Amino acid sequence: MSSWKKQLASQIPADWGKEIDIFETQIELRKIGKLDEKIFAETRLRRGVYGQRYDNGQRHDGVQTQKLSYPSGLLKGPETVWDAPGMLRIKIPFGGVTPDQLDVLAEVAEEYSNGILHVTTRQDFQYHYIHIEDTPDIMRRLAAVGITTREACGNSVRNLTACPKAGVCSGEDFDVTPYARALTDFLLGHPDCQDFGRKVKIAFSGCQGEACGLVMMHDMGALAVKKTRRGRDIHGFALYVGGGLGTVPYQAKLFDAFLPPEELLPIAQSIARVFGRLGEKKNRAQARLKFLVAKLGIEEFRRLVWEERQVLPEDDRWTSYLEQLPAYGEKPLKPPSTLSGEKILPEGFAEWQRSNVKAQKQPGYAIVTVALPLGDLSSDQTRKLADVVRLYVGDSIRTTVEQNFVLRWVSEADLPDLYADLLEIGLADTGANTIVDVTACPGTDTCKLGISASRGLAEELRTRLAAKSYEMDEAVRNLRIKVSGCFNSCGQHHVADIGFFGNSRTLNGYKVPHFQVILGGQWAENAGAFGMTIGAVPSKRIPEVVDRITDHFVHSRKQGENFCDFIARIGKKELRSLIENLMKNAPSFEENPDFYRDWGDPREFTMLDRGIGECAGEVISASQFDLADAEREVFEAQLELEKKNYAQADELAYRSMVGASRALIKQQYHDVPERAEIIVEEFTLRFLDTELFYDKYARGKFARYLLQRHQQGPVHADADSVHQLIDQAQLFIDAAHACYARCAVE
Fold this sequence. Notes:
By secondary structure, this protein is α+β, with helices and mostly antiparallel strands.
């Protein structure tokens, strides 16, 4: 082990370090063909390692895509992760990040990626153009400062989001931060969250009226509710389930109007168990929680969850975090102050203050939004931002679902100096949380599912809107625009005032990039309503769509009418008529070849480079994961044997057989114990006594390898004995695979 790895090891939580070591072994196993590609794909996704779009193995944005050379036969063509860089997603629970973490994130972006840190619409960070053999080292660097990539992708509980203003917002019932942290820690790697058919997304919000938490568009959303009983404030949550965007958005249903905090974690666990057991596994298009809730109905779903809750084994973690709540709370770096009217203010400060600064509920402090065009900032900017944060607010910084940063606890008198420092590092853009602040998913830049260039369109719209923001009507200024590169709604277009998602049409014999226009989504009230589609428009005409829609709103709205109500009153027919001539009458290719290209892409538009998305991977059962783990452990036993570590090799070989047994038991019994004695007993009862483990050739003889080692104990007296045990373990695991396949068919 290198010296820097040894130094990091002491700073990494033991369980995180072990998981990273396991992943590194799995990479090596995949290289030599000892781990099935389908299982490895879901494994790496659950570690945040995601395939990305690239240009046929050529250079892409200055980054060489081909770095590794593996034996022929392992590569499966352009979709394999081995011959192309990918994306690494990093979980940032509720968006909370510290300056020290920003420093490391900047270093990693510079050393392993393209020097860009990208903030996502789920408060995550992403690196692009990462090579897979670098990912374990990256994970260790991040883990040493408390950051994990585990379950950032895949069929798992994704990054848990929450209001970036939690704790400092004047409209909240209470600060949801400690509850969000507790649920994040509880569900990360939880056994009951490993057998989903698709991903699960969770959000927290401190109030009903704002949009920060967006609980209504999540699989599970917790809305802070405060009641007064006998003169005391009692905290609880209005819990919603079954929401989601995607191709067809679903509004979440109320599960419980006032869930006590002590029930938050066990109910989330119960929901996970019901979803894992009853959720769709074969048809991925129907595998989200929203479809299960819709199928069962909220009443039946609620009944099943509470029924599950009654049989859950007690867990101290359900309530132990509550004991820490009285001591929880952020401490400002500086005392409160007011901005003196006599102070000479920097040029541009007034506009920045108007759009990017909000009063905090604590007098004398302000909330500052650092606007990030397209959610990007460079490594150099990240490091300098970390220094700015240390100077003005300490650790109080969070990412937002609109791909920005929020600085909390800014002493008001510091605002001019803060603005000057942000201006110096190129992070003082105005227009945060306005129509200029366009949100976009990666689209065709890096996403395999991207159809149209969402980032290219977002940049074009942002540039045009910023140029005329000073003369903009205030009602238009406060609108939200969100862009997705396809129908999957990663850009959250359904909840925008004006939303777009990419598609294509054939015009004059050519494929032309288009965007479907969505109007009237409700960003406020936690994504209280979804917009409606009015038609697909060629990509190069979308800026004119924005102009026509906003102009019509300014001239035709009633006194005090908001955009959502205006859209509902005007109706789809009139709105479509505004843009209908933009949807057709395309120029010929010879007249205007640029019309047939996408924003920011000099090439003629094509759908041929669109790949298979990796948003969640294929559905892999918990049993398959356990069998893969058994394969890893028997392989590690061989490595220990080579080092002459006989005792460790013996233990690993034995554990591999126990693990394979447990995998089989999981097919029949959900709550499998961890103790080897009970696992062997259950295996004997369920697979030997019933002869399920038998096939017509071996007649179950490989089972005795497990029973013999279990009954007689370690065999690590010499190399030969251990070698034999490892061989036996491999035969047992092979038999377990065969048994699993037979039982799955039956």
